[in-house]
Design goal:
The protein has one domain (17-67, 82-153): Aspartate Aminotransferase, domain 1. The protein has 3 helices and 10 strands, in the order ββββαββββαββα. 25% of the residues lie in helices and 23% in strands. It is α+β, with helices and mostly antiparallel strands. A 6-stranded antiparallel beta sheet has the order 5-6-7-8-10-9, covered by helices on one side. 38% of the residues are buried.
């Protein structure tokens, strides 16, 4: 179990390999379309979020866009537009997390820093969340996406 303060995550059993450059992708991971569909369904219910094409992810990715009327607590961590995260076709995601939460996710094996994470101010918590392979893994990834939303907007998901 990895933790920082009160934020805790179980250790992930299998940690996928990724490229260490852009495009930042997983290697040899088979997606579970049902789990991706369920994650998208849940994220679509976040207040002020619309699912649409990405402006920063690779082709076929779904961006998690924040309504332009929503005030952002951390606009500096949004990579482009109002897209705070995106889901790749392989089920992995890129998301902006509080750097302390990102460190916990990396230590527990749920994420890896994006190659650009330490190259731009505010991007220290920009990570790839690995593809969930089970319903239990989906719960952890969903929790991390909620943390991304909270970090960027300053709002909790009810």
């Amino acid at each position: 179990m990895a933790f920082a303060g009160s934020f805790k995550l179980p250790n992930r059993a299998a940690i996928p390999q990724t490229t260490d450059s852009v495009p930042h992708i997983q290697i040899g991971v088979k997606p579970n379309p049902q789990l991706s569909k369920e994650l998208l369904r849940r994220v679509a219910n976040f207040p002020g979020v619309e699912l649409q094409g990405t402006v920063i992810g690779r082709s076929g990715s779904t961006g998690f866009w924040l309504d332009k009327e929503m005030k952002l607590a951390r606009p500096d961590v949004v990579v482009r537009g109002r897209e705070f995260a995106h889901l790749h076709p392989d089920g992995s995601l890129h998301a902006s997390l509080d750097p302390a939460v990102a460190a916990v996710a990396v230590k527990a094996g749920w994420a890896t820093p994006h190659p650009w994470a330490n190259k731009n101010p505010g991007w220290e918590g920009f990570v790839m969340l690995y593809t969930p392979g089970t319903k239990e893994e989906l719960e952890v990834v969903y929790h991390l996406v909620m943390e991304s939303y909270r970090f960027v907007t300053g709002r909790n998901i009810p």
